[in-house]
């Protein structure tokens, strides 16, 4: 068992988080992650209304008696969702762990803290992590450039970002972006994190509520099969490479504005990818970690494998290097 400040604070067995993913963070996946001893997150805005979120939380409770959380992502939107009402639904449902992400979550953090909710804030830079710490977040999820979704505009990969943040952030921190196996977990712990957050890897599990053909596409893809869209708009998003993302990038190079690509990138089209299995139907999120995903296990199999292999790497591979060094010094 690998115990860290993160597992102690959030009351889970393993230092692994299934972060919020639009259209993917539903009860069946979250409960499977929780039952396997890791921390699952329902994605609040996947649910069309705050009442639907209440129902989804209740559905998840029927499937697990272990702790799980809810992700609330605050992003610029043409028509912003009623964040305060979603927040109220989370609090009234008795949820005690929330993953926040996006723009200045101060009012949300304050309100959650008032009700004894632990806040894990996801950010993509050291300065934002320090700002979240000052805001009262209980823990940080630091997201490197490799990640699916929004990597920020600094382009700092995890190998630099995680230790840079660990040098300055005092509260527990988990590493996000590019994690999918035991090697990543051990590396994250070595770099100063207290655990890992995985998105794309959890999309590719038996309980993930997306089409089997999309899961097979992730397995088939290598680490080069992503595209960075909205770079020119300074709202970069890493998505799976397909006919649409390639077209959007080409249009941006020609000077396209958001309204020119709006129809192509519509969320409803991305949702259809997961429903129909047609990977070219719309924009969908996937990280560079696709290159490390070679199967579609259950969440229990995946988490158990990562933890056991991580323990073996620490005990056997790394320990052997230490004792090998001692032997040579003695000779």
From TrEMBL:
It comes from the Bacteria. CDD domains: NPD_like (cd04730). Transmembrane segments: none annotated. Coiled coil: none annotated. GO terms for molecular function: dioxygenase activity; nitronate monooxygenase activity. Keywords: Dioxygenase, Flavoprotein, FMN, Oxidoreductase. Gene3D superfamilies: Aldolase class I. This is 2-nitropropane dioxygenase. It comes from Bradyrhizobium macuxiense. The lineage of its organism: Bacteria, Pseudomonadati, Pseudomonadota, Alphaproteobacteria, Hyphomicrobiales.
